């Protein structure tokens, strides 16, 4: 039987897998991408389009975001298909003086370690009033980052795939991986009756990366973390930039903030994103409840209530739909981008809510890892960092 053989086989057709396909095909590798359903049908189509630095911890995390932002900024010229890229910047809103003090410290930390071209600025109450008439009067200030951008993740995934196919890349949709085996120097990957062989395999399966890892006896500490989003009808925008509450940082890293118990229990924090269609997305929530995609209408109500808390005039606006998605969470909130104990088998997953913003740098680094040109120290992203006792 004639089995297709590839230099690189990628498992997972979300934005991470598509970015890796694009970057590896650009390097001249013969590439295959296998997706169990349609491209971008999982997490990548059930999220917002954040390309953020403002919520990254200063140090390696922020440097990674800056690198990816620069790569994404260049993509409109490199890709044939548009993906609604804009760079409006972002704002964190603070409700009280304690939050404001922490937020200002966050600015100082970033400006102390990042390139001076990265612009973080402290905002006072008057700055907020000048920025949007819709902000609640109780807000005391905030911070902004002008580097932050937004894009359509569904469209970018397809743009990556389109460009990849113009090189030496085959894309197989509706091809779920049923087994992965290592035989000598090559891998055999099966999808029911289809069989592929490859020199190297990259597991970019997101929340399903642990399932693929187990096929080769590899433990991958990724857990699905559920989040909800609301979509408004077309209306006057609350603001053109990314707008979040500073408490979003608390919910992201599992810390308590001043909010109702129910808000904290579900990790609900304001996230507002304007779109090219002149409507906006509202989030967010964070839960560990397995692989359940069901929309919880109580959580939807709480997200709406939280949004009105920051934008009182939003109480008169219409929402046209809601959806939920599962983000691939790791215990230290950093993705896994590394080779494994099985020679030639790699993992590129676990980005949680940062997969959109970090897609470009992940694909770029994976391609460099494969052709031996990687100079960046990626030890913070190595899968073996979890062998010291960090568990889900």
From TrEMBL:
It comes from the Bacteria. Its cofactor is FAD. This is Aerobic glycerol-3-phosphate dehydrogenase. Pathway: Polyol metabolism; glycerol degradation via glycerol kinase pathway; glycerone phosphate from sn-glycerol 3-phosphate (aerobic route): step 1/1. It is an enzyme of class 1 (oxidoreductase). It comes from Salinicoccus jeotgali. Residues 7-369 form the FAD dependent oxidoreductase domain. Keywords: FAD, Flavoprotein, Oxidoreductase. Its EC number is 1.1.5.3. Belongs to the FAD-dependent glycerol-3-phosphate dehydrogenase family. SUPFAM superfamilies: FAD-linked reductases, C-terminal domain (SSF54373), FAD/NAD(P)-binding domain (SSF51905).
């Amino acid at each position: 039987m004639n089995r297709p053989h590839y230099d690189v086989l990628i498992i997972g057709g979300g934005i991470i897998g598509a970015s890796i396909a694009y970057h590896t095909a650009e390097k001249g590798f013969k590439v295959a991408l296998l997706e169990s359903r349609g491209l971008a049908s999982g997490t990548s189509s059930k999220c917002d389009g954040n390309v953020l630095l403002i919520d990254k911890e200063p140090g390696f995390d922020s440097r990674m975001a800056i690198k990816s932002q620069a790569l994404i900024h260049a993509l409109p010229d490199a890709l044939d298909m548009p993906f609604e890229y804009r760079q409006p910047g972002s704002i964190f809103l603070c409700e009280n003086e304690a939050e404001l003090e922490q937020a200002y410290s966050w600015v100082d930390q970033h400006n102390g370690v990042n390139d001076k071209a990265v612009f973080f600025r402290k905002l006072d109450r008057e700055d907020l009033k000048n920025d949007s008439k819709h902000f609640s009067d109780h807000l005391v200030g905030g911070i902004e980052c002008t580097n932050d951008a937004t894009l359509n993740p569904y469209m970018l995934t397809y743009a990556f795939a389109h460009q990849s196919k113009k090189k030496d890349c085959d894309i197989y949709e509706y091809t779920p991986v049923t087994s992965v085996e290592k035989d000598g120097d090559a891998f055999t990957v099966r999808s029911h009756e289809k069989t592929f062989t490859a020199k190297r395999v990259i597991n970019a399966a997101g929340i399903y990366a642990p399932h693929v890892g187990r096929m080769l006896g590899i433990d991958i500490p990724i857990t699905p973390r559920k989040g909800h989003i609301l979509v408004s009808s077309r209306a006057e925008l609350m603001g053109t930039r990314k707008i979040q509450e500073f408490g979003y940082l608390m919910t992201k890293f599992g810390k308590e903030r001043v909010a109702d118990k129910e808000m904290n229990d579900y990790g609900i924090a304001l996230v507002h994103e304007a779109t090219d269609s002149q409507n906006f997305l509202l989030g967010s929530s964070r839960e560990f409840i397995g692989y359940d995609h069901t929309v919880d209408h109580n959580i939807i109500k709480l997200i709406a209530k939280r949004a009105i808390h920051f934008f009182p005039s939003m109480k008169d606006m219409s929402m046209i739909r809601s959806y939920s998605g599962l983000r691939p969470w790791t215990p230290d909130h950093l993705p896994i981008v590394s080779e494994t104990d099985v020679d030639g088998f790699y993992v590129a997953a676990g980005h949680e809510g940062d997969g959109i913003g970090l897609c470009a740098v992940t694909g770029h680094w994976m391609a460099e890892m494969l052709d031996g040109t990687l100079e960046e120290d990626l030890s913070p992203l190595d899968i073996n960092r979890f062998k010291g006792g960090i568990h889900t």
